[in-house]
Specification:
mainly alpha, two-stranded antiparallel sheet, 4 strands, ABATE_dom_sf, ABATE, Znf_CGNR, Putative stress-induced transcription regulator
Length: 186
């Protein structure tokens, strides 16, 4: 299943947001300062962003534990309950827009909404689209034993196992190769 550009963008934002949280394998919180929030907003290419404040930082940080469990649930019903609760926190005012060279697409938050409201509604609706399309299994955690990052598998055959094939995937492949060489006496 291929999702629209704006849905994939929102899902990427969501994964990036959830992965800023410290977890069992990484105690680093990479969204502690206003500068880190500003960098996040710039990297995720949010349009028409007003000046961000410490309040924005606190509100966005508070969203992370709401979204994180969606990546580990094994039930569409449980995911739907979580997603509905998330979406209900925001104010949705769908509107068509074609900014920054992108074709017409839907923004679900009103103009001038806070960053937390925008993330809540945009990412919540993207998750709802994934679940309603019967694609919840595309939401998961990295399979590397020393990584717990969230990922969205947008591959055709749903074969993505690692948050980043260049780091987690490659590290495990190299370790397996070395183990095979060691076992064969090379």
């Amino acid at each position: 299943m291929t999702f629209s550009h704006d849905t994939e963008q929102a899902l990427g934002t969501l994964v990036r947001l959830v992965n800023t949280m410290p977890g069992p394998n990484s105690q680093v919180d990479s969204l502690e300062t206003l500068e880190e929030l500003e960098k996040f907003v710039q990297e995720r290419e949010f349009s028409a962003v007003d000046t961000l404040s410490e309040k924005d930082l606190a509100e966005v940080r508070d969203l992370r534990p709401l979204f994180a469990p969606v990546f580990t649930t094994d039930s569409d019903a449980a995911a739907a309950t979580m997603i509905n609760a998330i979406i209900a926190r925001g104010t949705s005012t769908p509107r068509l827009t074609n900014h920054d060279g992108h074709p017409w697409h839907i923004h679900y938050s009103r103009a001038g909404a806070s960053m937390a409201c925008r993330i809540t509604v945009e990412c919540g609706i993207a998750l709802a689209q994934v679940v309603s399309a019967g694609e919840r299994e595309r939401l998961r955690r990295c399979e590397a034993p020393d990584c717990d990052d969230a990922l969205i598998d947008l591959s055709r055959n749903r074969s993505k196992r690692y948050c980043d094939a260049r780091t987690c995937g490659n590290r495990l492949h190299v370790a397996a190769y070395r183990e095979r060489r060691k076992a064969s006496g090379e």
